[in-house]
Amino acid sequence: MNLYAAVRECNWLLRRQTWLSLGLGILATVLLAGMSWAEEAPEENGNETEQEWPKGHYPLPEQGDVIGEDYVVKAQAEETLLDIARANNVGYEEIRRANPDVSVWMPGEGTEVLIPGRFILPPVERKGIVINVAELRLYYYPPTREGETPRVETYPIGIGREGFDTPLGITKTTMRLKDPAWYPPRSVREEAAARGETAPAVVPPGPDNPLGRHAILLDIPGYLIHGTNLPDGIGMRASRGCIRMFPEDIESIFDRVPVGMQVHLINQPIKAGWDGDTPYVQVYEALGEQETGMANLMETLAMLQRDDDEPATALNYEMLRELLENPSGEVIALTPAPEPEPEPEEEEPEEDHLLWRELAV
After folding, report:
1. Is the four-CA dihedral 76, 77, 83, 85 of positive or negative sign?
2. Active-site residue 242, yes or no?
């Protein structure tokens, strides 16, 4: 074999080895991608079991109105009550109301903390996003694909403080913004001027941006559902009217909320519903000038009205009045109080029997 032929054969072998290596690389990439896709497929197709659902995700009851359960966790060293609230899908007011005797900043290692994780669904259409400002909570009813279990997701929120009330009514989403810039409104500029300061014309994306990294615009000018750079304010009336969410919560729904989705904003401090044959009520403190009274009592009874063909259930009206006067945010059964057991009759002493016989003679 001459030198030229040897070089040609060597080059041919090198090219074959190169193409073979390239082919094997492509095949390995495809196989790995397929394995990765197969691992992620259950989540993408919604076939995950309910035990794998994140906190705050519940199967939508086919009949009934109650979701979730209250439970107890133990505080870890260095944890604050706000850390525990955030890790368990509740906000500031909820965790404080459920644990009035636990320190906010130093609960103490091993301290038992009650997590208020039971809710009555708001008495409106279960569609899109429902925001109940009275309970500082958002309910999201995601579209259900074939084979999926219908679910509801609920998240703690922050709303407008006094004087900056969050608007009510039915609206829709209009736009989603990732890493939005914030343009301080007139009220912010005026407050800054009163302090002798100048508010920036725009706050770019970053840690100082109060909108966080995600924003969903509503069809109400100037109002958004957005993240926050101050997560400790979730579960409070602390915003200028917008709806704030924990950064991880709005990130979880951001790509799943389409433009045009219905958003229903309500102020419903009293919720009532059923779980099986048991009536329940959940009462929050009214916002602003709202007062509880006979109208609220009648409204609650109307929520508990069942079909005429269903047997009537006795209600504990005394407990209902007590809850309306002293709202706790707990889900309470309105079953009648047990009737007191009759006191046993005292037997007359033997001497009395003898005396009676003597008098009767």
Report:
1. positive
2. yes
